[in-house]
């Protein structure tokens, strides 16, 4: 045997630690802490820097590409959002027309609806 099991992955045996590990795996770990920290700690008028800009100054060549792609993504997102707003308006209008058509039948359907 070429391995020593006692050096292998150690698993917790206590229920509290098993539970802690399980819950730790469920919690989202990529949060925007830097933004909240920047807003709370950085006073108005103080300077700050972004990693992308710093990297581009020392030789990273894709800063402009990323900015371009981000603007394209935002434009497409805006188009999708406008379309969604239009569809929601049409849906609301269609629901209103359907309610007007049904009229008295809505009273019959009311106890069945949830």
TrEMBL record:
Signal peptide start-end: none
A cellular component term, taken from the record's GO annotations: ribosome
Keyword Ribonucleoprotein set for record: yes
Protein name: BnaA09g03130D protein
Gene name as annotated: BnaA09g03130D
Keywords carried by this UniProt record: Ribonucleoprotein, Ribosomal protein
UniProt family annotation: Belongs to the universal ribosomal protein uL13 family.
GO molecular function: structural constituent of ribosome
InterPro entries assigned to the protein according to its UniProt record, in alphabetical order: Ribosomal_uL13, Ribosomal_uL13_sf
Record has rRNA-binding as a keyword: no
GO terms under biological process: translation
